[in-house]
Amino acid sequence: MAIDSPAGAVALDRPSRPPAAVARGRRGLGDRVYRGLILASVWMVLVLAAGLVAALAWESWPAVRAFGFRFLVTSHWDPVAGEFGALPFIYGTLASSLLALLIAVPLSLGAAIFLAELAPGWIRPPVAFLIEMLAAVPSVVYGLWGIFVLVPWLRDWVQPPLGRTLGFLPLFQGPPYGIGMLAAGLILAIMVVPYITAVSREVLLAVPGSQREAALGLGATRWETTRIAVLRYGRSGLIGAILLGLGRALGETMAVTMVIGNRPEIAASLFAPAYTMASVLANEFTEATSDLYVSALVEIGLLLLLVTVLVNGLARLLVWSVGGPARGARA
Amino acid sequence: MGDGLYVNGLRAWFGDTLVLKGVDLTVAPNAVTAIIGPSGCGKSTFIRCLNRMHETVPGAKVTGRVLLNSEDLYAPGVDPVQVRRRIGMVFQKANPFPTMSVFDNVAAGLRLGGGRRKSHLQEAVERALRHAALWDEVKDDLDRSGVSLSGGQQQRLCIARALAVDPQVLLMDEPCSALDPIATAKIEELIHDLKKDLTIAIVTHNMQQAARVSEWTGFFLLGELVEFGVTKEMFTTPGDKRTEDYITGRFG
Amino acid sequence: MSPGGRRLVSSAVGGLTAAAAILVVCPLLLIFGFLLYQGVAALNPDFFLHLPKPVGEVGGGVANAIVGSFIVIGLAVAVGLPVGILGGVYLAESSDRRRPWVLRFVADVMNGVPSIVFGIFAYTVVVIPMRRFSALAGGFALGLILIPVVLRTTEEMVRLVPNALREAGLGLGLPEWKVSLRVVIPAARAGIITGVMVAVARIAGETAPLLFTALGNRFWHQGLDQPIATLPLQIYAYAIAPYDDWHRQAWAGALVLITLVFLASLAAKVATRGRTLAR
């Protein structure tokens, strides 16, 4: 202390060491390294995402240049001759996914309404849990079950009677192979049901209780309350849930490959074998001998990417419109 | 001759907690009965027992009798859905259906009863909106969304919606607590008109409001009905000390 | 409609939705039932310890596939975990509302990309330059799938940490980075770990992206830059082959796979019970 300093008594007021160098806004080394690592990771993710699109675009360019728009509308797929028309795969993907939705949506919405509104309290957790476990089953396991259980069942017990009774419709004509569009649609339906159910249930739970009270107060039964207060309110979110299911179905690979028959033809019958975009990638990527072949396959991959991104983006917007952005993390 | 509600030995639970400890009260016909008391005294629970809304909460239970004229609403075999048809309710925060138009909101209750013809619906909706003193403000655009109205208008829309099904009694659970003074005044004026054809019970935390609109008042405290009587008398010469303390602002 | 009629409709709809719920749950029981029934027979020590026998011969196992799965998952975790966790922390800690939405949006979109597309990406950036299929390529593809899942669950878990904890750390004079690393992230550690477990359970079952990256191998892999077998790949190869013995092994492999995946998901659920954001 500075009792003896030349400045005299004033020195007593001066602190014995300088104030710590913690100026607002200036960061220490640790902080800068930390921030740097974090930002590097963020950039890494963005770069990878951009790289994904860029790599696919780059690899598919030869095919795009060779075939242009014809790629999307011709159905002739002949690798030997170098002819690549992707229409059968586009058709197969869309048809199998739509068939899956037709089966899955009523079941999923029904189950979601049951879980969110109508079920007694003690039933909800176990059933919700079982449905979540369904979502965890790997695709190849679904495919295995599909080949050895679903397909024989269709071939022996479902398709023959369908063919006999409804065979006048083009939908049910042709030999009952078992494998084909119907099998693919069914197995896809089983696979997307858990997703649509889980998201729909969350949408319904996000509807404010005051809406239900308003309906109950008017003398509505449980179902009427659900119908006019909950379902109407959560309408856009439910559509989003369905779209999320569609997004899953479009990209599903293994299970579909194992039961769809893998024949690049467009047929009207559900009994006929078909081929999807994801399946042709799974089957033929390692067989692709020429650069053009690979390029055509990558172009299919690019198409698949664009379609699923669009559908998923739209789906998320709709689901957020009911509950808020936090709901995106699950699916 | 109007309809009255006669409550006898009403007890209510949330799970194992007893929240209403035996209430005997009369909601007089063609009059307004106010229910007052500090927060948590059970007044909302009480009024929700009158139209069997309390039991919609999981784990909630009610015992006792509530007679609408001479019928016990809690008798075994009575359908709560029908009870809520005959006893309407307006809630604290206006809750019109956001995806429906003004017209559809008012018609919502009517449509539940089964497909009415469009012309019947139009008449009924106009009548309800007039009754709720909202017709003039919305008649030019009945298709606008129910939530595009102001707060006070939305609450009157909810009143119209409740009135459209022609209830015998109307329950109001703090209907003005979210509204500004002007909107509140409009609704109080409306209540004066409504009580000519309807029996009304209103929960309010605003004592001046109770004094303005009601003929009868019940004071609740900690789940019990402490005092019940003619409004004017209760506010000038309360019988119970607790009532006097509440009214003079010593608590609550 | 009469009041009685409306009540009937309400009950009927209740019944229909209950039926829907039952139908929805049925496949799970059917599939698991079949797996048990078909797969238990082929489960024996050989299955876990031996390599596949030559084509046509009965017996052998999937030891290389099991080891391969662990290796590829390990590579995927090495690729995806740091990036995913740090990204998640970024999202959770950023108060600035503008820039983060890009990352969140990209991560959500990545979540919906079909896994086989990631396989194509890995093919173009790893397989082609290396001129060979490899475990590295497979690990890279799976790592890409891992990133968005880990990112979002990390964000959710770190957000759950009460702000008061961060303020306590700052109040003690710790620099921001220490508060994050030593106070906030450890508090969210359990949640982050379970999020990682769920993500790993998901990639453990992935087959499509590995079809032309890791490719598969009937023998032990000769190095990380060589093709490698994984359990899902082996199941697929056996399922589409014409040999009955291979089919039995496919069922057994599927039983093992689904049991591991279920256990991991179950453990994750139990660990995060009560920790969720909304509801």
Describe this protein's structure.
The complex is a heterotrimer of chains A (331), B (252) and C (279). Chain A is an all-alpha fold and 331 residues long. Chain A has one domain: Orthogonal Bundle (MetI-like fold). Chain A has helices spanning 29-67, 70-73, 87-118, 124-136, 139-166, 181-205, 209-217, 222-233, 235-251, 254-259, 277-284, 291-323; strands spanning 77-78, 83-84. In chain A, β1 and β2 (83-84) form a beta hairpin. The longest helix of chain A has 39 residues, at 29-67. Chain A is flat, with a radius of gyration of 29 Å. Chain B has a domain at 5-95 and 168-247: Rossmann fold (3-Layer(aba) Sandwich). In chain B, 37% of the residues lie in helices and 25% in strands. Chain B contains ten helices and ten strands. Chain B has helices at residues 43-50, 80-86, 102-112, 118-131, 135-138, 151-164, 181-194, 207-213, 231-236, 241-247; strands at residues 5-14, 17-27, 32-36, 60-68, 71-72, 87-90, 169-173, 199-203, 216-221, 224-230. In chain B, β7, α7 and β8 form a beta-alpha-beta unit. Chain C has two domains: 3-42; 45-271, MetI-like fold (Orthogonal Bundle). Chain C is 72% helix and 0% strand. Chain C contains eleven helices and no strands. The longest helix of chain C is centred in the first third of the chain and has 37 residues, at 3-39. Chain C starts with a helix and ends in an 8-residue tail after the last helix. The mean pLDDT of chain C is 86. At the A-C interface, α1, α3, α4, α5 and α6 of A face α1, α3, α4, α5 and α6 of C.
Helix/strand order of chain C, N-terminal first: HHHHHHHHHHH
Order of helices and strands of chain B: EEEHEEHEHHHHEHEHEEHH
Number of strands of chain B: 10
Question: How much helix, percentage-wise, in residues of chain B?
Answer: 25-40%
Q: Give average pLDDT of chain C, whole number.
A: 86
Stated plainly, the CATH topology of the largest domain in chain C is called: MetI-like fold
Q: Would you tell me the overall average pLDDT of chain B?
A: 91
Number of helices of chain C: 11
Which stretches of chain B are poorly predicted, pLDDT < 50 over at least 5 residues?
Answer: none
Give the amount of beta strand of chain B, in percent. 25-35%
**Which parts of chain C are unreliable, with pLDDT below 50 for 5 consecutive residues or more?**
none
Helix vs. strand class of chain B: alpha/beta
**Class by SSE composition of chain C:** mainly alpha
**Residue share in β-strands of chain C:** under 5%
Q: What is the radius of gyration of chain B?
A: 18 Å
The radius of gyration over CA of chain C amounts to 23 Å
Question: What is the count of β-strands of chain C?
Answer: 0
What count of helical segments of chain B does DSSP give? 10
Q: Give me the CATH fold name of the domain at 5-95 and 168-247 in chain B.
A: Rossmann fold
Oligomer: heterotrimer
